[in-house]
Automatic annotation (TrEMBL):
Residues 1-20 are annotated as: Disordered. It comes from the Bacteria. It is a peripheral membrane protein. CDD domains: ABC_NikE_OppD_transporters. Pfam families: ABC_tran, oligo_HPY. One of its GO terms (molecular function) is ATP binding. This is ABC transporter ATP-binding protein. Keywords: ATP-binding, Cell membrane, Membrane, Nucleotide-binding, Transport. It is found in: Cell membrane. Its main location: membrane. Belongs to the ABC transporter superfamily. The keyword Hydrolase does not apply.
Amino acid sequence: MTESSATRPSTRARPSADRPPLLEVKGLSVRFRMPGGRHIAAVSDAGFTLEAGQCLALVGESGCGKSVLASALLGLLPANAQTAGTARTAGTELLTADEAVLARTVRGRLVGLVPQSPAAHLTPVRTVGAQLAETARALTGLRGEAAVRHAAGAAERAAFPAGHLDRYPHELSGGLAQRAATALALVGDAPLLLADEPTTGLDRDLVEHTADELRRQVDRGRGLLLITHDLAAAQRTADRVAVMYAGRIVEIAEADRFFGEPGPRHPYARGLLNALPERAFTPIPGLPPELGDLPAGCAFAPRCPRSDGRCASQRPAFAAGTACHHPEEADRD
């Protein structure tokens, strides 16, 4: 984590009493029906808000449910998924919207997806400029030169060089491919961006560049839900941090308090930071539980140095920003 990220000036948008959040999620749960009548609780009772001009980083180990939550918001879950709760943006309820509404009004227009793998979203036989113009026609109804100009504007906002618009995806570096995918997410002028592991597979310089480009979109007034296991990228980009473990959000905190002082309150979140090479470099012992066989109490209890009998038998409620029976004191030095 660099000095520039640690000292980035805060641009947090403050909640307004006279306008709803850009994204409001309440009690979001996702269960998968499996053969034999089993169920896998991939996401349990997730809740958070996101304002325009803010970035919320959703972090946690691989397999904790982060990407499932993102797929639920975009209506991209498989047929065996069951959802509960609410997720609302711009007056649209995302969890109950049918495919026609999601395709016509949500994806690309209200929510732009910045994908983990640009190669999966860029057509290999068409130039970047052609793909952007085609997306502009589909999302905005513009035609001809107007669509081309709109596409060029999206490329400019994503810092994709105009001189590379006539190139094919295989001619782009990893960083340029990621910027092309970001430009596609911006073509519909979506007020909310959802970036699902956008720095996976990139070297550290490209991670920092990608994080800075996403932060630039936030500073221009967009909301960003950044899903990542890369805590350095989260620190560089986020205003707030939500920590997910075994399908549950166990802590939500302001980024400066989370990465600085007083630090995380939940033992798992504190363990994530302590596992970083630039910190204690101490891994969390043990492994996360199977989502299809969660314990009755706190899912982190078998790995937690603070756990006791209450943790093993009672699931902690989410209160004061954390779900833990024995959180770190908020006012500790």
